[in-house]
Design brief:
Blueprint lengths: L12 H4 L11 H10 L14 E2 L4 H9 L12 H5 L1 H12 L5 E3 L7 H7 L4 H28 L8 E6 L2 H5 L15 H17 L4 E7 L2 H14 L5 E5 L13 H16 L7 E7 L3 H15 L7 E5 L4 E3 L4 E3 L11 H6 L2 E6 L5 H15 L2 H10 L1
Parallel strand pairs: 1-10, 2-3, 3-4, 4-5, 5-6, 6-7, 7-10
Antiparallel strand pairs: 8-9
Keywords: Metal-binding, Methyltransferase, Transferase, Zinc
Cofactor: Zn(2+)
Pathway: Amino-acid biosynthesis; L-methionine biosynthesis via de novo pathway
C-alpha cells in the first residue's frame, strides 16, 4: 500500500494530537505511527459501531397536527397523549417515514404533579398516561414497519426510548435552561421525582431511557446513581443542556460533568461500561456549540476510553420568550452540514431537538448513511486493515 494514503478528514487521532485534518491531512505512514502509540479506543471512527439517527423536535412537529400553541402550554406536548393520541402517533410516523431509527415517548414534560394540576387526573391516572405515551410510540413503530413490509421494503430495528426530561420541565418556568432549581432540590428529591416516570416507562418495556436536557451536574449524577443502583439492566443515555460551547446551563463545565457521569458508569460496569449505555452527550443546544463541547471532553479524557457520544441539537433559532416565537431562521445553516464533524468526534446517535422537522431528519439520515455507516468509512477501514 502506498504511504501517501490520506486520512481524508475521517481519523479522530488527528484531533487527539491537535492536528486538525481540515487544515492538514496526514499521510498513511504518519497515520500508522500515531495508531501504534495510541490506545485503540481513540480511533473511534475505525470501530464498526453503527451510527443511529434519532427523531427531531417532537412538539415542533406535533404542532402541525394539533393546531395549538404548544410552546406556551404547561404540559407542552405531553397534554396530547391524553387529548389527541392519534396526532401523537402521526407525529412519530412523520419522523419514522423520514429515516428516524430512534423515537422517544412523548413524556419529556410528563409528571404526576403536572397531570394532576392541569389535566385533573389522579395519581394512578397520571402514571397510566405516561405508560400510554410509550404505547402510542410503539403503535407508530408497528404501523410503520407494517407499511414497509406491505410495500416490499426492508425493515430495520426501530428503538422506542422513554423520554426522561429534567425536574425543571415540571416547573414550567424555563428553569431547565438555567438550572435555577439545582441548589433547592436535594439528590433524594431528584431521585424520587424521576423514579415515578422511570418505573412507568419501564413497565411498558422501552428499549432504553433518554435522560435529556439536564441542566446541571447534580441532577445528572442523581439520576445516574439510581439507574446504576436500582435499574442496572436498563440501557440509557444522559444528555446535557448547555448555554455555550463549554458550560452546562447551570454553569458547570460540560467535560467535567460528562466525565463524572462516565466515571460512575465505569465504576459500576468496568470494562463493559460501553455495553450498558447508549451514550453521554448534549441536546437542546445550539448546533454551533456541539463540536467544541465534544472537543473539550476529548481534551479532558486524553487517552482514556471515551463514552459513545449522543447529540441532538436545536436547529439554531432563538426562542424569544417575550414574543413567544422563534427568531433567527435566516441565520441557520442546514442541520446535516454539522453531521460529519459530529461523527468524527465520536457521535453514535445523532438527531434533532427544537425546530428540527422530519425533512431535516431525512437529510441527517442521508448524511449519516453516506458518511458514517456506508462506503466512505468502510473503504477507509479496509485500506487500513
Amino acid at each position: 500500500m502506498a504511504t501517501t494514503f490520506e486520512c481524508k478528514k475521517l481519523c479522530n487521532v488527528c484531533f487527539v494530537f491537535g492536528i486538525f485534518v481540515k487544515k492538514q491531512q496526514l499521510n498513511h505512514k504518519t497515520h500508522l505511527k500515531l495508531k501504534k502509540i495510541l490506545p485503540k479506543a481513540t480511533f473511534l471512527m475505525e470501530q464498526d459501531k453503527k451510527i443511529l439517527v434519532k427523531c427531531g423536535g417532537f412538539s415542533t412537529q406535533l404542532a402541525k397536527h394539533v393546531g395549538s400553541k404548544i410552546d406556551g402550554d404547561p404540559l407542552w406536548g405531553s397534554r396530547f397523549d391524553h387529548e389527541n393520541p392519534s396526532a401523537v402517533v402521526r407525529t412519530h410516523l412523520d419522523f419514522l417515514e423520514n429515516g428516524a431509527q430512534i423515537i422517544l415517548s412523548n413524556t419529556y414534560q410528563s409528571s404526576v404533579q403536572g397531570f394532576m394540576k392541569h389535566l385533573k387526573l389522579s395519581r394512578e391516572q397520571s402514571i397510566a398516561l405516561m405508560r400510554k405515551s410509550v404505547q402510542l410510540a410503539k403503535e407508530a413503530r408497528d404501523l410503520y414497519l407494517k407499511n414497509v413490509v406491505e410495500k416490499g421494503g426492508t425493515t430495520e430495528t426501530i428503538l422506542v426510548m422513554g423520554s426522561v426530561g429534567p425536574y425543571g420541565a415540571m416547573l414550567h418556568d424555563g428553569s431547565e435552561y438555567c438550572g435555577s432549581y439545582t441548589d433547592k432540590v436535594s439528590k433524594e428529591e431528584f431521585q424520587s421525582f424521576h423514579r415515578i416516570r422511570i418505573d412507568a416507562l419501564l413497565e411498558e418495556n422501552v428499549d432504553g431511557l433518554s435522560v435529556e436536557t439536564i441542566p446541571c451536574q447534580k441532577e445528572a449524577e442523581a439520576v445516574t446513581e439510581i439507574l446504576l443502583r436500582d435499574y442496572a439492566h436498563v440501557k440509557f443515555w444522559i444528555s446535557f443542556q448547555c448555554k455555550d460551547d463549554l458550560h452546562l446551563a447551570h454553569g458547570e463545565n460540560f467535560a467535567n460533568a460528562a466525565k463524572a457521569v462516565w466515571d460512575m458508569i465505569k465504576k459500576k460496569h468496568g470494562a463493559k461500561a460501553k455495553d450498558h449505555i447508549y451514550g453521554i452527550g448534549v441536546n437542546c443546544v445550539n448546533p454551533n456549540f456541539v463540536a467544541n463541547l465534544f472537543k473539550s471532553l476529548h481534551t479532558l479524557l486524553g487517552n482514556e476510553d471515551l463514552p459513545p457520544l449522543v447529540v441532538y441539537s436545536n436547529r439554531g433559532e432563538i426562542y424569544d420568550a417575550d414574543k413567544g416565537e422563534w427568531t433567527g431562521l435566516d441565520d441557520c445553516i442546514p442541520m446535516e452540514s454539522y453531521v460529519p464533524d459530529w461523527i468524527r468526534l465520536g457521535a453514535t446517535i445523532i438527531g434533532g431537538c427544537c425546530r428540527v422537522y422530519p425533512e431535516d431528519i431525512l437529510q441527517i439520515r442521508k448524511c449519516v448513511d453516506s458518511f458514517g455507516n456506508n462506503n466512505e468509512l468502510s473503504s477507509f477501514n479496509n485500506k487500513l486493515n
